[in-house]
Write a structure and sequence with these properties.
The chain is α/β, with parallel strands linked by helices and 490 residues long. The chain contains 14 helices and 22 strands. The strands form six sheets. It has a seven-stranded mixed sheet, sandwiched between helices. A six-stranded mixed sheet has the order 9-8-7-10-11-21, with helices on both faces. Helix 9 links the parallel strand 12 and strand 13. The termini are far apart. The structure holds succinic acid. Succinic acid binds next to loops.
Length: 490
């Protein structure tokens, strides 16, 4: 029987190192709060370099046996982990809502999304093939085999506290790597719960280690992994400046990196689009997680002849969104993650208004609901000089830009250092082919706003990073290729 837990049974506040729950070496703790109310949920171990080192030591000890386990043995453990996650989807969904703020339906949805990566990589674990290279010389056999890269450090964000860590840990474990990890300081509890379930599923001691750290101590703790030559790979989801820091600081030991960084996604509505479908797609992709998603549209370009009509249709839908705490069953948007997030959204909106934009709906914090709420907002007459055009707002704000022709909008869409996701709506097949080829992003939604899937390669180009997560390609980042040349065979 698969064990089912209540929310409180899943709350762990210590580090998980070498199969044991342990406090930080310093004994320090930091508060994790509910973004809806500011109330403290738990005091989590606040780790430093000694804890990071202990995690690496455990991962190094566990590596030989885990690397040599049969792929089907590792797959069986991942399948059990998947079953436990799914069985506990309600409690995990509530935990996500509690520490991250997203409505319960979305929190539970995230659990199932994260679980889908675990199931996917459980299956992929048994399909890591190499190659026998066509013979080049008599008496010689050449082959290429894939091996786990070694210890992986996973550093994960707060916006999807379960799905992002699941899609990093699952492929690492599937191929035989061991893992040290640090979840974001705002939302460590979901990751700790996930690790608890992994242990229960049979992940051996030392194979998966997780430490918490506050904003103040995180840099010091993680630095130990960046400098330790035993850690062979870093996988990170978060901001571009932090990604660049990790690449720079880990260069001394030439680690392999996967960086899933910031985006500034364009969403283009051509005049030949089905406008109702475009509005529905935009609502789905923009307001997922209250706009706090790397693939959320940040700049919405609408062709001039349909601009006013699209703006009207969209504004009606956005004005009807229900903003409420995650515990309200009808909530569609919860609080933002913290006060800094609300401050940034407010700054982007005021800058746009000062530069001539019109607020069609929203445009203000909702202080009456709690400390971190912001009204879903539509802004018309956005222009490229505005801050919200250059930086990810990471909140529920849709700025509408006007364009006249295809060449102009492709130029504008690509005029950013970022290249994670893009979206466009058109019913013209030739245009669909042209625009899809010209958009400089790793992911393109064509007449579709919901593009994420465990079966698809997720990742960016340009300063949105490198490496791919999910899909058959998602294993490559955790493997190295070894060439074997055997002579004297004839
Ligand atoms: C992200 O925001 O980084 C991930 C979103 C997704 O997986 O769809």
């Amino acid at each position: 029987m698969i064990q089912r837990y209540e929310l409180n049974d899943l709350i762990r506040a210590d580090n998980f190192i070498d199969g044991k729950w342990v406090p930080a070496a310093s004994g320090k703790r930091f508060a994790v709060t509910d973004p809806a109310t500011g109330e403290v949920i738990a005091q989590v171990a606040d780790s430093g370099p000694a804890d990071a080192r202990a995690a690496t030591d455990a991962a190094a000890r566990a590596l030989p046996a885990w690397r040599d386990a049969l792929p089907k043995e590792r797959a069986a453990v991942l399948h059990r982990w998947h079953a436990l996650i799914v069985e506990n989807a309600d409690a995990l969904g509530r935990l996500i809502s509690l520490e991250q703020g997203k409505p319960f339906a979305e929190g539970r949805g995230e659990v199932m999304y994260g679980a889908s990566y675990v199931a996917w990589f459980a299956e992929e674990a048994t399909r890591v093939y190499g190659d026998l290279i066509p013979q080049q010389q008599r008496g010689k056999r050449m082959s290429a085999v894939k091996e786990p890269i070694g210890i992986v450090a996973a550093i994960t964000p707060w916006n999807f506290p379960l799905a992002m860590i699941a899609r990093k840990i699952a492929p690492a474990l599937a191929v035989g790597c061991t893992v040290v990890g640090k979840p974001a300081e705002d939302t460590p509890l979901t990751a700790l719960a996930l690790v608890m379930l992994a242990h229960e599923a049979g992940v051996p001691a030392g194979v998966l280690n997780l430490i918490g750290a506050s904003r103040e101590n995180a840099v010091d703790a993680v630095k130990d992994w960046l400098e330790d030559g035993r850690v062979r790979k870093i996988t990170f989801t978060g901001s571009t400046p932090v990604g660049k820091y990790l690449a720079r600081e880990s260069a001394g030991t030439l680690k392999k990196l996967s960086l899933e960084l910031g985006g500034n996604a364009p969403f283009i509505v051509f005049d030949d689009a089905d406008l109702d479908a475009a509005v529905a797609g935009l609502m789905a992709s923009k307001f997922r997680n209250g706009g706090q998603t790397c693939v959320c549209p940040n700049r919405v370009y609408v062709q001039a002849s349909v601009y006013e009509k699209f703006a009207d249709l969209l504004t009606q839908r956005v004005a009807a969104l229900k903003v409420a705490p995650a515990t309200d069953p009808d909530a569609q948007i919860g609080p933002m993650i913290n006060a800094r997030a609300v401050e940034k959204i407010g700054r982007h909106v005021s800058d746009a208004v000062q530069r001539g934009a019109r607020v069609l709906t929203g445009g203000k914090p909702l202080a009456e609901l709690g400390p971190n709420y912001y009204a879903p907002t539509v802004i018309a007459d956005a222009t490229p000089e505005m801050q919200l055009s250059c930086e990810e707002t990471f909140g529920p704000v849709v700025p509408l830009f006007r364009f006249n022709d295809e060449a102009e909008v492709i130029r504008a869409a690509n005029d950013t250092p970022f290249g994670l996701a893009s979206y466009f709506y058109s019913q013209n097949v030739r245009r669909i082919d042209r625009v899809a080829r010209r958009l400089e992003t790793g992911l393109v939604g064509i007449n579709e706003g919901a593009i994420s899937s465990e079966a698809a390669p997720f990742g960016g180009v340009k300063e949105s990073g490198y490496g791919r997560e999910g899909s058959k390609y998602g294993l490559d980042d955790y493997l190295s290729i070894k060439y074997l040349c055997q002579g004297g065979l004839e």
